Predict the structure.
Amino acid sequence: MNPNYLWLIPVLPFAGFLINGTLGRKLARPAVAGIALLFTAIPALLVAWLWSTMLSTGALTMSVTSRSWITVPGFHVNFAFAVDHLTLIMLAVVTGVGFLIHIYSAGYMAHEEGYWRFFAYLNLFMFFMLVLVLAANFLLLFVGWEGVGLASYLLIGFYFTKDSAANAGKKAFVVNRIGDFGFLLAMFLIIAHFGSLSFGDVFAAVNAHPAWQGGFLTAIALLLLVGAAGKSAQLPLYVWLPDAMEGPTPVSALIHAATMVTAGVYMVCRTHVIFDRSPLALSVVAIIGAATAIFAATIGMVQHDIKRVLAYSTVSQLGYMFLGCGVAAYSAAVFHLMTHAFFKALLFLAAGSVIHALSGEQDMRLMGGLKKRIPVTYWTMTAGVIAIAGIPPLAGFFSKDEILYRTFAFEANPMLGKLLWAVGLLTAGLTSFYMFRLWYKTFAGEERFDEAHLGQAHAVVHADEHPAGHDEGQDTSHQGHHGVHESPWIMLAPLCILALLSIIGGWIGIPQALGGSNHFEHFLDPVFAATTHAENAVNADQVSHSMELVLAAVSVLVALIGWFVARIFYLKKPGTLGARFGNSALYKLVANKYWVDEAYDATIVQPTVIGSRILLWGFVENVLVNGSGFVSAAITRLFASVTRKMQSGNIRSYAGWLAVGAAIILIAMTASALHIH
Amino acid sequence: MHLDQSILSLIVFTPLVGAVVLALLPDRGKLQPAAALIVTLLTFLFTLHLPAHWHSIPAGTYNFELDRVWIASPNIHYHVGVDGLSMWLLVLSGLLAPLGVLASWNAIASRRKLFYTLFLLQQVSMLGVFVSLDLFLYYAFWEMALVPMTILIATFGRTDNRRRAALKYFLYAFIPSALLLVGMLWIYNGTHTFDVPTLTYLAATHQIPGSAQALWLASLAFLIAFAVKVPVFPLHGWLSEGIQEAPTAAVMVLAGKLGLYSILRFSFGIFPEQSHRIAPLMIALGAIGIVYGALLAYLQNDLKKLAAYSTLGHLSFITLGIFTFTAMGVDGGMYQILNHGISGGALFLLMGLLYERYGTYDMRALGGLAKVLPWIVTMFVITALSNVGLPMLNSFVGEFLILAGSMRTAFSAHAVLWCVIATTGVILSAAYLLSMIQRVFYGALGTRSREVQPIDLNLREHVTLWPLMILFLAMGIGSTYWMRSLHPLATAYSSAADVPPLKNPIVHVEAETYVPVNGGQR
């Protein structure tokens, strides 16, 4: 394949964005969806072509550099793309999952106002995401990085007449900007030390200097981590992601589960050369990952909104990926990134189908018994739940277990490894619990919704959420019958494909201990080679295959326990858990999400605003800055009030002033004359 | 006379002739704005001659130069010429003027003759500042810029506070300008020339007579006058009220360009060492100004006030950049002057459009407009994103270079600290601009937005805004086109610390124009 075709991969969705963004308002809905799908399908085909090239030649590295973007004396940045095996996987995930979600959206959004706007934004997102994974330098990666943030802002705020949606969009952008602040500083440091932002130059320089350990590389790595934590919703910057659920559900699936939020993981993997040189930074990555994983999982256990459960689950799973990166198991992290893209996209889309069936209801307390009513959604979602719970042989088991095993075997800091492994294991149990809780509450038990009033209730309660979406006569599926209904096949088909991927997607990475050959890890060897081989050599000595088997068995057992507990409390004896713990302080703490949003508001936002208002606005601006103006004005006025007296209009006084002036000049002349002589 | 020699004079004096013509024409219907539009478009056309016939030149030399003796004694020349920076500033001013006229088309409904005549005079003085290579000529244009702007604010201001705002603007600008004049005369007294290339050469070779202390004071006289005009924090007392009162067309050219250009040309050119000496302070003020402007912008309920503090923040970025004396910082700073012209200009234009429709700048009375004004919200969001510094749009290139330069500067002991503080600006600017978008356009309809029949952009407004939107993207992606002619100056100022600049190119200029006058001592 001609490397110049790489440009087409991101540029085509951008063309779709421009067409739908400018003309979409006047186009028919099928035309809008058709354009958006076409400009996503062609890049997907191009990526497939890349894969076939790669498979026929066995390896693939490809790069293309265009003209200069920024040039100043002594520094330049080009428009440059590069493809290696890591990028290939990301490209496949982004275009593949992206295309499926585009199809689903055509059905899901069919009745929404602003259909064209939605697809224009979705294509814009694809453009920036593809730039992000194709970029061959930090700055172009940053373009994609900020760009996906913009698309996310626009799509979260899609229902902008609703205050909560507008707030959530703004919050997402601003919190992401805190991360970008770190990313920018990292880039400034890189420029200061390397004089270049090209991945090739920087990594080659690091590789050429084995003596560089820690020091400025730690600073760069930690700043990059700030950026990654913002984008991938890690502690302490995760707060925007749960609120981002205000966006339409396909957006939650594509941007806030499968692709954009994994950009931080991708970035850490991409820059692993820098992280490898800083054990401190790696430990921080691992600790943040593990802490986020368990923290978010506990919140996920007590949420009632089906999308929020999935949102906290996403934060938690991203934590696993960071944990993997932190123990230098990059390929395991990418593996989990991929399987997570499959099963989390599936879960969100299935949740969307549930919400669609209930005409907009998202509260699980008002669901239940849907198993028979929406069977396709039920069965596909079941695949997703088992996959994320980590039960073999579905995808989530293999990728999550790989991370846990590598954490356990983390030789750089064995104590830390064991500790983080325990945290990860506990999280796995919690994950299984809250996912089966969601499953039971949604599909099992009695029907807790009022079918007769679903349509009306939706029209009233969610009138804000879907502005004018359901009040037009064009509605064909919602309005026609208010009852619970299975979604159309345009939505179910992507569900089925993703369900299949969630089941078999993990089989490409079955470890040797379980009789596989871990194709996935070997595939990524060219990217992570240096790290992986060193690790493998050590691991082989330290932890035997039998140990790996034992660990796998333990995590399966933990997942089953989680399922079992959920089964007791949400199928057999529903309500007992709530009755027992509903009023405890611990429950309230978790149910209120540890009061983190409130704490940030009270310790950072409000002090800044109030401080600015009192100190900066009240004192500096209005007293010092403007006051100095007043003082000078007052001096001028004082001076003027004296000199004004000269202008009395009285001829005698003028004559007097004349005489005084003449006398002064005479004296001055005499004095200077005396001086000269 | 060859066009390349006369083109600058043509650019400067076309609006002057236009102003005279407007003054003679009757104030009837749309005659005045139509005539002003023709004049400004013609001027813009002339400025486009410059990039089209540009020759790349080393620092310290100028294209399209014309040097005639104006007054033999004192030695004052009509000396005009442009380098990359002043060329692009001319083109920018040329572009903004017709857009300003279009923006005033309906907004100025009475005393049109006065408005457009003053507007063109303001244009003359601004263009004159950018072409002048003789200090005295420059000072004439510099002071002349003050008068039409003051009258514009005092006459066409929005509220009853306009006279006060105009007076404040005048005093803030005028008093330091008096110091500037003293500084200039002191320089002339020592060198007997007002010629800027010559003075730059003398400065670079340490030939400007005077004690270190005197030179320091003279440099401060220059810098303070310019810093007030920029304005640099905390000398921005006039800015907020001036921006609130001035009509859209005037506000687009009120701040930034003149002062920053003057710092780059005169403070850096004539006082290189003194500028290095004060750099740590200016870097600190720049970084503080960024944060200060953004925080105050966040507090405002009035769109124009918000834009005023946003302007302060953006100009502080440029101040920070140019005083780093790194190639990245100076280049980025100069590029950012252009960017601020179009991004800030677009922001003011759009706010003006809202004011024309809703009669208020108060965000609390607006809200929910996105649903009824789809084009305006699109333009507003794009402009806000440009101001936020979204990559691929214009301002990102400048801000990125400025901040990267500030990390590397050798002129501040705490460079990293100031860089970190300045970089928080990217968070804060997103916070206040997105809050603004939300308060004006999202949520439920506000009190004013319910009362008024919504009217989206008309053809004239589309024509006004599209050039700026296209430039956002073009200057974000194709920055090299604009920046290559800025490089010589950036290189000169960044390497000034080690290498004495401008040795060779200046020699023939000296031979031609620098005639030391020996009558000074007796």
The CA atoms of residues 63 and 329 of chain B lie 24 Å apart. The first helix of chain B runs from residue 3 to 24. Residues 277-477 of chain B form one domain. The first strand of chain B starts at residue 63 and ends at 71.
